[in-house]
Amino acid sequence: MRHLYLAATGQNRGKTTAALGLLDLFLSRGLQTGFMKPVGQRTVIEDGQPADEDAVLVKEVFGLPEPYTVMSPVHIPRGFTKAYIAGDVVEDLPARVVAAHRSFDRHDILLVEGTGHAGVGAVIGLSNATVAALLGAPAIIISEGGVGRPIDEIVLNASHFGTHGVEVAGAIVNKVDLDAQPGIGRTLERGLAHHGIPLLGVLPVRPILSNPTLEMVFEGVHGELLHPGHDLERVIDGVAIGAMEPGHMLERVGPRTLVIVPGDREDVILTLTTAHLMGSPRGGTGLDQVPGLGTEAQHLRGHEGAALGLVLTGGYRPREAVIDAIRAADLFATLVPEDTYTVASEVHDLLVKTHAADTEKIDLIKALVASTLDVDRILGVAREVVHV
Asked: What CATH architecture does domain 2-207+358-384 belong to?
């Protein structure tokens, strides 16, 4: 069996995107392919078993037969780190990882996904560098965007892997704007070559890969649905916080923006509702249902159709007349009890995670990786497992 350790320079760099695409390529070659995430930081309960959410995603997308105990042998739930430091965790965690790894011995190739940067997990003795060394797997490091930043990050992480004796097989740079910087791939390749790190490919930026649908937002924030809007499957293209004067708010809101705003900021809500209504196919029909509008519509010209949806925070329910205006505009809106900062953090997490139900997104990921990465080159840097 050959194996690869898919690492990254930090969270949300595109590791899961690369993993989904590479697994699809390996399987399309007819290879018996396995996946494991030795140490997971985001634990969910699936089929009564705790597992890292990326292991659940991969298992659901590809129908892999291995149990979660093998695909996700160690996970770090809340309180685990303190318990480990206090000496309350007596289990041999490295042995659990090695045992899970051996379960894939009959596979052709195993993709091992790390978590965070090279040092993440050191607090429990299982940093990415430690785990890769334990398994004897070469590492591919993923970073994103720019020129200086990805090279700096990749070199830093490669250094940490190197101190643990881990071979760095190469790097992948994700979310690259090839249209704005057509020669950036060659620049990155040369920059990394100075440090002896091959560039294995770049993945172009695609907004849909970072943006959730309104339905995903609603499910993610667990709010009360005040109105579903025209289409819950529409993808947002940005998030704005409604914590300023309504006129200034409009300057930061486009037609596909999700606005997070306290439920008692009726001035902002009504301004956005009115602007959205003015840009609707109904041509502003229903403006008479917006309370206290008066002549304000005159000042909204140029902002017609603003906002795709509203997340109303703090548990502050607007007056029924305001909710009626939201419905008249056919604007998505959900009410949540949490404060604006907490909700914004939750939505940010949604912006960078992939879910098994995101079939359009997953299909795009597979096509994107297939068209930009050389699977033969990736397979060429994989190494055979050598058990000691």
From this structure: 3-Layer(aba) Sandwich (3.40)
Ranges of CATH 3.40.50.300 domains, the chain = 2-207+358-384
- If you write DSSP's letter for every residue of 247-306 in order, what string do you get? HHHHTT--TTEEEEEETT-HHHHHHHHHHHHHTSTTTTTTGGGSTT-TTGGGGGTT-TT-
Q: Which amino acid is at 213?
A: T
Q: Where in the chain is the domain with CATH 3.40.1390.20?
A: 214-350
Which pTM value belongs to this model? 0.74
Query: Which residues, including other chains, have CB under 8 Å from residue 19's CB and lie 6 or more apart?
Result: 6, 35, 54, 58, 111, 113
pLDDT at 252: 83
d(CA 307, CA 189): 40
Residue among 384, 388, 381, 386 nearest 1 (CA)? 384
Run of H or E including 226: strand 224-227
Nearest-Å Rg of the Cα atoms of the chain is 24
DSSP-assigned beta bridge partners for residue 168: 139
Read off the pLDDT band of 22 (50, 70, 90). Answer: very high
321 half-sphere exposure, CB direction, 13 A CA radius: 10
Structure tokens at 10: 């930090």
Element (H, E) at 16: helix 15-28
- At position 128, the amino acid (one-letter code) is N
Q: What is the pLDDT of residue 286?
A: 52
pLDDT tens-place string over residues 236-246: 878 889 888 88
Rounded to whole angstroms, the Cα distance separating 74 from 42 reads: 11
Token readout for 306 is 């603003």
Architecture of domain 214-350: 3-Layer(aba) Sandwich (3.40)
Closest listed residue to residue 125, CA positions, set 94, 97, 159: 94
Task: Specify the 3-state DSSP secondary structure of 377.
Answer: helix
